[in-house]
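OP here, attaching both records as promised.
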Amino acid sequence: MTIFEELRNKLRSFGGGEPQVDVGRHPQSGSLSDTHDMMLAAAPDPEPLLDGLSIGITYEDVDGNISERLVNCVKLVETPDGRYLWGYCHLRTDFRAFSLERIQQIRDYRTGAQTEDSDAFFAPFIGMTEQDDRLHTEYETRATREVLGLVGDELRILMFVAMADRHFDESEETLISDFVRTRARQLGPEVFENYDHQRVVEWMSAQVPTYDVLERAVERLSTRGEWELRALWDLSTDIVHADARVDEAELQAMDELYNAIDAVIKEAQE
């Protein structure tokens, strides 16, 4: 059994609960009028910074119907018809490609933060393209992307531990927030002084890792070396004790995280 098969089995009882939100339906929601946005030529590989981010969107399909969607993001895709968000749509219970031009509003379902500027919202999660010349001059966007690129997978795993008891305590958020600042300093003063810390925290709060997302996070993080995994374990232990109470689900989550990290280290040493 591979480490990722083992991880899926071990995390089955807690790792991927979907957010409990009300997904609205427009009067014609029984119609599949958005099938024009249903499929791309092939399912794209996940974008590491965007993979697993859960957002709410107000979306207008090609026929003018407006609906509220809860979307688990996978990747932004450039096509001859423009840029699309590829992700799992809970309203349609299937994957969809949403035109960014027809996304009227984006919401963080946990914080309530919202924006009507989809390009600005997604800018920190994607690489630059020729269409993004405006963003080259925005140090904040570039710096935020660099920080997310460094800590993204660590935050996915830390949120798994913090949310094992289905409660994200303020003390847990403070520990993770301090960790982000410490890591951001490692990227140098230009990045540290310009990145949007609140944007990183909002990204973190919107993480609801599925089994596949968690597997990919562990795989990517394991390539950095054993010390990264052990440091992550130490911080996870601090998070469990941060709220002065240890829930059984948190202990089980830590046991499973330990086994997963141990298996990755052993696999690397073989």
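Record two, same layout:
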Amino acid sequence: MFMASGIALCLSAAQAQDFKQKGGDNNLQLLFAPFGSNPISLNEGITYRRFLKDGSMAVRLSLSVNSSKHTDVLQQADDTLSFPKQINYYSPFPGPDINLVTGMNPEANLVTKESGFSIRPGFEKHLAGTERLSPYFGAEIVFSSSKTKMTRDTIVVSDFTTTLTDTISNDVTISAPWTTRSLGTTYGSKTFGVNLIAGMDYYFTKNLSLGAEFGFGFYSTKYTDYDTDFLKATDTAPIVGPDPNGVYSATVTHSTTVESNPSQKRGKDSGFGPNVTARIKLGWLF
């Protein structure tokens, strides 16, 4: 890109032409980090500008949208001492017990999903500058929102139901393989701000520019509440009887459900001060 820009600059030096914006022109800008691992980063946002009058005024809209998902394996799918192949479950009657055959451990993961967006409408007033340089000042309003959801797998015994009587003499074996229940935690933030901005665009060739921008702004951020889940295990074994033969029976049931905790309040913050676009802006005029 730098080689192509240098060639274009040499060719354009021998030609008389207008480099800077005119009324009715459109402009797209994205952040450019020539020495970074991601030279062109769309996650930082794109700015659209529409030049008015003779090109000395512009309305602008900056937009940034991002989304990511990351998975960590917390528990490998294997048999361990923590999750044995067979466990003992209580019986409502004295004597024989219930043996639960649990088998192989499932894989348990921690999944983190993050998403967010930022929208910043504003305007610019461009000064005379030079043949290639267009300095400007202006203002923008900032609206942004972010959300994070973490989902953690917890290994539990699968739900089961069986009927027992007080006449059973041997242990009862039931298949209840290990399974997972996903517990989620969700939180985020919403931000409003106003920025006074100043910057410059340098047109190194026709319709292409490099620029930088800095400003002074105010922001207010409200952090959304924590929403979290927990496991609720339910065990029942009502004894019924006796029947005509004097036998008591019980239906043993185990179930696990995911419930939601009451939301936990979070705070907010605000402030003002200088802010800087730490990367170069690459612009295309059309």
